[in-house]
Fold these 2 entries.
Entry 1:
Amino acid sequence: MTPRLLLGLLMGGVASVIWGGHAAVARLALTGQGLHVLDLLFCRYVPAALLLAPLAWRARGEIAALGVRRLLLLVVFGGAGNLTLFVSALHVAPASHGATIAPMTGPVVAALTAWWLLGERPTPGRVAALAAMLGGVLMIGWDGLGLAPGVWRGDLLLVAAGGTWGVFTVLLRRLRLAAIPATAAVTLASLPFVLPPFLLFRAEAFFAQPPGLVAWMIVAQGLLLGVISMFLFARGVELLGATRAGTLSVLVPVVGLLLSAWLLAEPISLLKGLGAGLAAGAMLVAVLFTGRR
């Protein structure tokens, strides 16, 4: 194995681990440390916007060509709108559901949206793989019905979060936007929807929290999730190629399940484990062995 390949695996793997840990960290912050959805949105978008502003400025011509309507669509499907759905779901849904249902729903919705918008008809093999992923999601959701009242509502929000992210990925392809400039643009464009309500309703309470917690949430949400994971995965794609890098996304549900069990003592039942294994295996098959017409 060449050093280039090893470096690509390391970078893509670390990015996938960060994404896998997002649900557990967010769920712990909301239910164990008393934070609010607006707090997490602030930590995600304000620090990242400051760090990504130079990239957005460099790509200002490309961003301006999008127009306000398209940029707002990207914010809804891949920016503050998407994250609001995901984080709100974790008030009632387990972190293990957040780390599995949303990432597995995204590719299914993306395939359907690409078929509709781009005319990319999936092959029978990919249809079978996506159906297996959907079956895994349903198994995980069924497992959560008896956990606590209202879990199903959180699961529906997670399906919506995964679905909007799937649409977002297709919009990026349709608009021919590179991932890093697009992320910078969406991060900055999310600020008007995040910063004013945070300042009005949550700033005083959030900054009254222990300084260590405030610093950790800014690092975890803004720096690690909002900036570093994006650059690591983009570099991993450059070194490995899109197909190999895509296989690393299988780590997301695995890391999510393990961290949910470790940090939050969420049980991994047989049905949940089987559902996650089925969905992750189908995702791997979809990336490696199936295509589109």
Entry 2:
Amino acid sequence: MRAFEAFAHREFRLLWCGQASTSMSTWMDQVTRGWLIYELTDSPLQLGLVRGIQAIPLLLLLPVAGTVADRYSRKVQVWIAQAIDGVMYALLSLLILTDSIEPWHVYASAVVMAVDQTFLQPARAAMVADAVPRRSLTNAIGLNSLVFNVSRSTGPALAGVLIASYGTGGAYAAQALFCLLATLWTSQLSPRYTPPAEPRRGALGRSILDGWKYSWRNEAVRSGLLVNMFAGFFIVPFMTLLPIFARDLLGIGASGQGFLLTAMGIGALASAFAIASLGDRLSRGPLMLGGVALYGVSVAAFALSPWFHLSFALMVLVGAAHVSSHALVQTVIQTYSSAEFRGRTMAAFSMNQVVFTLGSLAIGTLASLWGARGAMAAMSAAGVAAMIAMCFAQPRARHIR
């Protein structure tokens, strides 16, 4: 089937299996780490702190991580990051099972693993374009998006079952096993990309600066990064306000919020499968801009919806638009980046997580002033306006193939 054509390539199959395993462990950690720190401290504040502290390495080290991925072996970078993650999960499991765990262990491991993820993301993303021919790149990224969204749906649920049955120690043991599997698959890779023969020539700072210059001067890459940043700041942070809608505005409680996230997952899975099936037959530029515009419109409609069933249907549309825009942006950036700069352009792409954090602060501030509905509608409308402005400011973006 055309939807799975990238699996014909051995390197991509191995990368995809590693992605599946690490995505499962990462999404399980979203539940396990929060549960553990709350068990240890009974502090809602520390629930936020243990997450917030993980954004610091992303902000400081992503440019370095992208440069390292271009100057050295990407396979080794991915392998080391996954191995360290597995060791951290195993240590946490051992500390919990021996009743030796303390809050500082949770914070220290969170920082170490945030650094690992910072170096893992651009290297692995750059390896996708190395693993398949250009004609299969959209399909490969669609398949990666598919497994990412499956993991987002199943990982937290699996963590919850394991915590209920075996405690957080059992959940962390399973996460360590997933990382071990990812490390074994990565060790079998035979990457095509060969780093420069003399990677240490020139300062690291100069290489970072060269990557920024390249990303800005390459019009297709610049367009993709701008779309990604605008979506990350104006539209994606709507999820920050979902608890307010579930509890106070729609009156559906925590279980209702779970149904809304499930609806988003349904749309995301359908969109990811469509992208994988259509592949390079898609006109990426128009769909990239239109996907984010649709994303903003559907979030604004969700903000104004007074009924749960309508909100549920709109969340399906939100999930579909989110994945289509995100996956297509990544395809554009990888397609139009030369191999020696791909690690740095993907590091710039990953900076949207920092932008998302800033957007979450902005939408929270606006919600305190205008209410949740007004803040969400205003921010998403600004995202739509940004896409319209890009159509005029960078007209060539509409013609990206």
